[in-house]
Amino acid sequence: MIDHRGDSPAQAQRATTPKSVVALVDAGSGVERELVGAWLTEGGIAKEFGVHAPVTQLDLDAGAIATRLVGRNDDPLVVPVRVLWLPPERDGVRRVTFADLALLSNPRNPHRFAQRRLIGKSPDRHVVLTGQPALLSELRDNNPEAAALVTAGSAEPFARAIVRAALVVLERAERNVIGDRYKVPRLVAEEILDSPQFLHRLDVIADQIGASPHEVYRRAEKGLRELVAAQSRLVSDLFTQAMRPVHASTWKVHTEESGLADLRALNRRHPLVFLPSHRSYVDAFVLGDVLARNDFPPNHVIGGANLSFWPMGPIARRTGTVFIRRSFGDDEVYKAVVEEYFAYLLAKRFNLEWYFEGGRTRTGKLRPPRYGLLNYLAAAVRSNRVDDVMLVPVSITYERLNELGAIATEQSGGKKKPEGLGWLARYIRSQQHSAGHVYVRFGEPLSARDRLAAYGDPLTTPPLSIPLHSTDATPDVPGTTTAEDKVVELERKAVQRLAFEVAVGINAVTPITVNALATLALLGVHERALTLGEVRTVLAPVLNYIEKRNLPRGEIDALRDEQSLAVVLEQLSLAKVVTVYRGGLEPVYSIEAGAHLEAAFYRNSAVHWFINRAILELAILTAVDTPAPNQLKEGWDEAFRLRDLLKFDFFFPERSEFAEQMTTEMLVLDQDWHSHTTEDTFGTDVLATLTGSGFMMAHRTLRSFLDAQLVVAERLAARDPAEEIDRKLFIDECVRVGKQMILQQRLHSPESVSTELFTSALKLADNHGLLVPVEQDSAKRRAELTKRRIEFADRLRAIGHRISQAAALDPSNRLVREP
């Protein structure tokens, strides 16, 4: 019962042959006891481990072990034994179905009458299992603190440790038979609450908050019972069957399985933490199905407590979902419980999964990460509770989503409907329409320890008196002086950079879909409809660009064929994203009135692939308008200024790497561009090359983000600089004013009126120091803040003018059809 993973039974044989054996029998019925007894009588131990010695049977029960085993003076070999019951085999797979339940018995845990019947009729439906054995002395060495209590007259802690070790090795033996996808934890809360280190931590917290140790322990126990996912193999099988139709009939799941073998190999050494993009409530079902089909153990999925409503909550908890409170506040006990539970799961090599954006994207692009759970993961690594953790970026991309209407409503100021039974019924009903492909892609795994170290994390264990990390990034600590503050700051920045790298890893494998390109084309022509031929003309150079850069993509070659393109547009029409007018000479396509946010969602799933191109276009237009000889310098400066304006919307690398990316982008446009930098005709040549590429991206990709920033900038410029800003009320104001600006045609498209875009724009304004109010009696500082707010708005108007120039140069806006 010591971790000898990979050892064969022969290797497990003791160097010194034990003189006695204790079989710890985990039996739930008389039938199982008979099966184990017969197996032992027939020499099962000798056959399995080559040990010929008298065998004593004990129940796998802490009381019996405390009384009859832990105090023995000899050194018996301790062997856990259990009967494993198997479902019937169907198409080579043993999995419980709803049909099995018609017999009113769980095939993995049949009642005693069914057990008796199965022994005679289906002998292949049971196996006598043994877990990895250990000498009693080895168990004492493995649990020194608990074993030491035996001599003091307290045998129960050591007995409970033996029970837990036996269950662990029996579970491992079961997985060798039924597969890793059924890996489930047992007695988690009990083991954590028995940990001397955790109990000491609770004592420290009790001193810090002025509470009694008993009260803190009671709160910790309550928090653990609330958190711990009690996984059930039966519920997992049935839940998978029940929920698979929700997405199986809606999407055709497409995944590249070539890298999954490498991930399984990594998983034999380290726990995996899957960090997927979050676009739909069905994400966890899609990813879970992909992993189960490839025999990965089930992930512990970290979810918000808002989804724990009946009956989903109790069911999901039994399939591995861990529901965490949305806000911890100052509850140091709950924070300690969460951190300890995370460390426990990682130390036991259970895989985790969470959506580190903190919620579903409302715009289609990846949201800024939340750092709370990564802080807990980093704490487990720093404390050496786990040698390393492999972070796996995962992209889940849908060609179409049937829940976009509700998302768009929230973005334009509508309230989110609370989750519940009615919500669940509506959600499942909305999924019963074909929506094309869903692409699941796995990014390059990242070593948490290596990446944290590379980003400057000291990787030292803080004293227990240091406050735990909060669930979000802490603000910058200006003028830190103490060593403790400096360590916390280094840790914070390392976690943030690790999260950034995960986000980049997700984006790097996110494929471009047919709907992303179709909406990209139609959103780029202001209030115009395009014929099928015109849509093809717009997309042809973009498809060539994608191919030239070898970007990840879905079935986008279909867009080169007119008939296939028509099917894509018709499907978007059925989804009420595109409208088709058929009353003229031929059908023409445009974005459905009121569906710009839905269309932008599809486009934004791939927009990150075109941002550098869009920035390059605006940098070139800036350079062209700059007198010689400063054209090139001004072009580079503009690129860096745009990078700064968009840093809360997209994931940009450091300046040097960004410069390399922009140079690469320029070489894609013109391989000989270096030869133009010293010529008098620089502006003319580069502009001709740009327009000759056949497409422009700035107005298609950047306009909505910068227009949203303009709304925020103008509302700030109109506000009293002494006034404190309530962010929620300010965002509501931006929504109302943004709608007015749309009606006045001061904004290009309704997609700019988005609470999520306004939130990012407000973060940018805060980063530029435009939110902190100035005292009423400081007229000079008030005037200065107002001036900077006005300059911010003026700068965005100037960029908007430049984007309009780019739109005018785009061939799609210069298409002329012959009568």
- What does the overall shape look like? elongated
Beginning-to-end CA distance, first to last residue: 84 Å
SS content category: alpha/beta
The CATH architecture classification of the largest domain is 3-Layer(aba) Sandwich
Classify the beta-strand content into a percent band.
Answer: 5-15%
What is the CATH topology of the largest domain? Glycerol-3-phosphate (1)-acyltransferase
CATH class of the largest domain: Alpha Beta
User: Compute the gyration radius: what is it?
Assistant: 31 Å
Low-confidence stretches: 4-15, 464-478
Number of helices: 34
Helix content: 40-55%
Give the beta-strand count.
Answer: 18
Number of domains: 5
For the residues shown, what is the average pLDDT?
84
The major beta sheet can be summarized as: 8 strands, mixed
